[in-house]
Amino acid sequence: MEPMIADRPPVSPTDLVAETDPVLARIGNTPMVRLNRVLPDDVPRQVEIWAKLEWFNPGGSVKDRAALSMIREAEAAGRLEPGMTILDASSGNTGIALAMVAARRGYRLVLCLPENANADRKQRLRAYGAEIVLTSPFEGSDGAIIKARELAHAHPDYLYLDQYSNPANWRAHLRTTGPEIWRDTNGQITHFVACLGTSGTFVGTSRYLKSRDAGVRCVSVQPDDAMHGLEGLKHMESALVPDIYDPELADADLGAPTETSINYARRLGDSDGLLAGISAGAAVWGAVEVARRIERGIIVTVFPDGADRYFSDRHVWG
Ligand code: PMP
Question: What is the pLDDT of residue 278?
């Protein structure tokens, strides 16, 4: 089975009206590729593993979908007008996505970000004109969330998007990621595997896929330990649990080890020609775990961003 992306009509980024901005209209409809040489020999021959390459979005990550959806839903509800200030907390990708969409639309963005976010991320955010409020490196993304709540309270005129509680986050994936996967597998998908950050990708895509075929098994992947190195992912047991997270959707929930995930991410480059980010390595790990437990099937996962986001973290790609 080969997805024929060029032949297919685009899925609208929202169900409101078609996006007219030529840059933002490029969000979604990312390529889906089958994984080959990166897979271990014990993956059964009749199991296919496919990945959606989200760094093809104009802002470079899966979070473009959520950022556009949250901003468009706020606009449609009459809560955003040109010149207004948007506020949120992000450990990286959502911030960059929001900064891009805000700059295209003419909004100011204030973003709370842990101080230890890498230099490349801060540079990208500033390049898009975002104003960064740095929070304690010891409190991680939770510290940034707490700061954003304080700012929202102090500035009632700001629109606090709150990606962790905003249903427009997961609805982005209900409207786009889910339908794209269904279309590109001709409805043949048997398993969906996704990593958990805000959980928007997992929740929205799983809801769509299960609405098309209740038999699709949805598997969430989170770090196996509170002290992990999988940027963008949340260890739910020890973190502030996002309001939008619905653990009931998961037919299984797997704990990814940091080292093995990083190794998969690194090997994707030379084995399959895919320069994917670290959480993509965790997604491969999860998909392989699922593959080992079945005899045949079509597993689809999501690669949230590309390796270039991590090149300034020397410990991974050197
Ligand atoms: N991987 C990376 C690198 C991310 O930045 C994110 C978003 N925090 C995710 C995975 C998880 O996506 P979601 O927020 O939709 O769960």
Answer: 96
Give 218-237 pLDDT, tens digit per residue.
999 999 999 998 989 999 99
Contact yes or no for 131/108 (Cβ under 8 A): yes
Q: At what angle do helices 119-127 and 93-105 cross, to 10 degrees?
A: 10
Residue ID of nearest Cα to ligand 1 atom 3: 232
Closest residue CA from atom 11 of ligand 1: 197
The residues with which 223 forms a beta bridge, in sequence order, are: 256
305: DSSP letter: B
Catalytic option among 63, 122, 147, 234: 63
DSSP summary character for residue 46: T
- pTM, whole model, 2 decimals? 0.94
Ligand 1 within 6 A of 201 CB? yes
**Domain 17-56+176-317: which topology?**
Rossmann fold (3.40.50)
Query: Residue 316 and residue 307: Cα distance in Å, rounded?
Result: 9
Ligand 1 pocket, residue 286 CB under 6 Å: no
From the candidate CATH numbers 3.40.50.1100, 3.40.50.170, 3.40.50.1820, 3.30.590.20, the one assigned to the domain spanning 63-160: 3.40.50.1100
Percent of the chain having pLDDT more than 90? 85
Condensed to tens digits (0 to 9), the pLDDT of residues 15-68 reads 567 889 999 999 999 999 999 999 999 999 999 999 999 999 999 999 999 999
Q: Quote the DSSP letter at residue 235.
A: -
Q: How many C-beta atoms lie closer than 10 Å to residue 293's C-beta?
A: 13
List, in order, residues 6 or more apart from 318 with CB less than 8 Å away.
none
Q: Is the CB of 196 under 6 A from ligand 1?
A: yes
Q: How far is the CA of 124 from the centre of ligand 1 (A)?
A: 17
